[in-house]
Amino acid sequence: MRYYDAWFENDILFIQTEFCERGTLADLAQTTHEFTEQELLNILAQVARGLRHFHSLNLVHLDIKPENIYIASNGLYKIGDFGLVCRADAREVSEVRFLIHTPFI
Questions:
Q1: How big is the CA angle at 38 (ends 37 and 42), to the nearest 5 degrees?
Q2: What is the DSSP string of 12-57?
Q3: What is the mean pLDDT of each run of 10 residues along the chain (105 residues)?
Q4: Closest by alpha carbon to 47, among 35, 34, 64, 30?
Q5: Are strands 69-71 and 3-9 parallel, antiparallel or unpaired?
Q6: Is the entire prediction scored with pTM above 0.85?
Q7: For the chain, how many structural domains are there in total?
């Protein structure tokens, strides 16, 4: 999910990201939509590519779940919510950081 800007206002962090108007994978799963095997394989492949990108940057996303997989208008599935991203070599949970400057899919 593309990051554009972030700022603090009245001690609140605002993060401007790409708008994925089709919602999340969790939203889609709660509708009457029935996934085909091909759709599920496509979703899994796209998420795996995103995770491979994270890992190539020595990062780990600690909160992969349907609510954090967003659907763009072009049908691409994108990983979002980087609140629980840490370096792969972090030794303690206290090293978890919010890394908004890294470009992700």
A1: 120
A2: EEEEEE---TT-BHHHHHTSS----HHHHHHHHHHHHHHHHHHHHT
A3: 82 81 90 89 94 86 88 89 70 47 43
A4: 64
A5: unpaired
A6: no
A7: 1
Q: Kindly state whether residue 100 falls inside one of the protein's structural domains.
A: no
Q: Are 103 and 3 contacting, i.e. CB atoms less than 8 angstroms apart?
A: yes
Tell me the C-alpha distance between 61 and 51, whole Å: 8
Residue 30 domain-assigned? yes
Answer yes or no: 63 catalytic.
yes
- Find the CATH number of the domain harbouring 90: 1.10.510.10
Name residue 99's amino acid. L
Considering the candidates 27, 63, 81, 89, report the single residue annotated as catalytic. Answer: 63
Q: Which of 77, 87, 80, 84 is nearest to 44 (CA)?
A: 77
Q: Which of 24, 19, 38, 17 is nearest to 66 (CA)?
A: 24
